[in-house]
Amino acid sequence: MLLKPRVESDELKILRFLNNRMILPVKDKKRYIYLEKGYRGEMFFDQLTADLQPKFYIINDLCLEFNNSVFQIDTTIIAQDKIFPIEVKNYEGDFYYDNDSKGFFTLAKDEIKNALDQLKRSKSLLNPLLKKHGFYLPLEGYVTFVNPEFTLYQAPLNEPIVYPTQLNKFMEKLNKIPSKLNERHKKLAELLISMHQTDSPYKRLPPYEYHQVEKGLTCAKCQSFVPSVSGKYFTCICGYKEDVETAIIRSVREIQLLFPNLKITTNLVYEWCMVIHSKKVIREVLKKNFVVVGDRHLRYYI
Ligand SMILES: [Zn+2]
C-alpha cells in the first residue's frame, strides 16, 4: 500500500526549466542529467512496487536527518517483521566492480557513486533513528539497478544487489514474505513521513537572473518554444495540444519557481510568454486562478 508517492523535486524542475532557457554550466548540466535520469529510474521502480500486494507500506523518497547527518532513501518498504530500505540506481552502460577498493567504476576507470556505501550509511542512520522512537524492526537493505542496459563486470556475489534481470524475481520474493500490518506499523510509517525534509534547492543552483533566461511559452510535453498562439488552444510541433489558460497557469508556476522574489503581474506574464498577445486574456486567467493582492496599479498575484 503506497503511503507516500514520489514527486519531482523542485531542484529537478528548476534545472529542467533553466536547461531549456539558458546554457547551464557543465557541472550543473551534469547534475541536471543525473537527476533527470535518476528520477526516471525511480519512477520505473515505483511501477514495480505498485504491483506488490497490499500487505506492505511503501514510502517513496524519504529525506531524513539523524545526529546532524542527512540521508535519503529512494524506497522504503515496511513489512510485518522487517523494513526494506532500497536504493534505486538508473546507471546505463558498462561498469566494473573493483574488489580491492570495493568501488564501482566506468570502463574508462572513472569512479562512480558507491551505491552500497550509500545504502550502508542510510541503514546506519535509520537504525538508531528508529530505536530512538521505540521501533526495533530489523533492516534489510538493497541496491537495485533498474536500467536494462546496465552491466556490472566482476560483480560481487555477497552484496545485497538486485540487477535489472532480477527485478521481477525480487518482487516475487517480496510478495512471498508473510506480512500482516497493524496500528504500530502505521505509526512507524507516519513517523517516517512526518520526519521527511524538503530542503531549499536554491543554494545548490547556478547563479541566474531574470534577464539572462530566454523568454517564451514552452510546450508542456516536449519543452520546445511555442512559435505562435491564436485562439483558445494551440498545438506544438510535437503534436501536443493545450488550452491557453492551462499554459498561462503553467508559465506562472514556472516563473514562481525560478524567481520566487518576483511579483506576478499581467505585464510580467505577458513579457514572459511572448506569444500571448492579449493582456486581457492573461489578466482574466490570473484573476480567476490566483489571489489578487494590492490595488489597481500595484496589483500582483500570488
Ligand atoms: Zn511539444
Automatic annotation (TrEMBL):
Pfam families: NERD. It comes from the Bacteria. Residues 37-149 form the NERD domain. PROSITE patterns: NERD. InterPro entries: NERD. This is Nuclease.
